[in-house]
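tmp note - GTPase Der
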Amino acid sequence: MKPVIALMGRPNVGKSTLFNQLTRSRDALVADFSGLTRDRKYGEGKVGERPYVVIDTGGITGDENGIDLPMAQQSMAAADEADIVLLILDARAGLTGVDQELVSLLRRQSIPFHVVVNKIDGMNSDTAMGDFYSLGIDPLYRIAASHNRGVRSMIEEVLAPFPEDEITAEEQAHGIKVAIVGRPNVGKSTLVNRMLGEERVVVYDHPGTTRDSVYIDFEREGEQYTLIDTAGVRRRKNVKESVEKFSIVKTLKAIDDSNVVLLLMDAHEGIVDQDMHLLGHCIEAGRALVVVVNKWDGLDDYQKDRIKDSISRRLKFVEFAQMHFISALHGSGVGHLYQAIHTAYLAATQKLSTNYLTRILEGAVSDHPPPMVNGRRIKLRYAHAGGQNPPRIVVHGNQTTKVPASYERYLENVYRRELGIEGTPIKIEFRTTENPYAGRKNKLTQRQISRKRRLMAHVKKKK
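out:
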């Protein structure tokens, strides 16, 4: 098993910066203000041949209220499940009362921890460390996470007591990646917690609670999954903070990184334009899709019928996607999502044989031939698989650049019906068969040249 390291400390001491250095990534959002990180964020790193898992957590102030309280609970949950805690302190701020309280808390709960003093760049490190020696902890690690100074030697010493184990295939497997996306405050984090059966991410009755995409690996009935909780995406004109802009970029990146997308909508508000924009991005990315209408509880029969009519009318172009009506808060209908996820994932990743795809193409062309272009019929000769997630079908023929969009949709519907593909878009690519002799001038033999001359002379004599 890989050792698990949790990063704890006050807000804005550099935990997310150190997380990015330890994982050699830019997965954690970093900005120069406190309270940016709210959920537990997991990442994997390696120093030499030693792999490890790092958990980034929200800052603890000691007087939590409002949204800060569940953030602090998430931090303590990370400390409980970690093998070692790195308590990050700020060299520029010196030793504070909150730092001392955190040290006392970790000692009382017998949680193994190390103290890491960050932001020593530009300072006399010996002078800066004076206050921290009063904690009676040895050693004290001094680093500058933003410049990656002292980070490697620190993590090597922290990992030294842990045995070196090989990474098993089970640890490498992440299973089906499921991204949960939607507008702010539609219940994404509540759904994540309900699917996991624990309070894994911060839930608060305020839009924009989730700021970063949180990847969560778990197992259910022998199947491996990775749930991705994402930040809500608002209309561009309403996005003012730069942090929110980065959050939206992370959400769109999570869609591209996933296998299946759960698009969450609010039943009380119905389908709005931003839902349609997000739906369009999911289809453009080619991801398998499940449309989930949340907050279904509490609606009367008239409201439910009205919402269903609106959905069937406005989402007619995504009839391939399964539709589920749930209550993430109370759990009704949530269990059925796993079957929809499996159906969409298997359809998006199934293997397609060239012979079968070509036979379907021949039947489709026989029933409804392509149109004539400039007096010549478009000829579609054969098809083969071009990729998975989404299923990509490559069709070869002549004049394929002139195939109309209506005929492309016809072929997509035929393939969807014949292959039984449900829950994922199908991408069809057309490729024109190249003429191997195009642009090549035929070189005549001496005999052909002599014959051509005799013919030309005969033609001139007749004239």
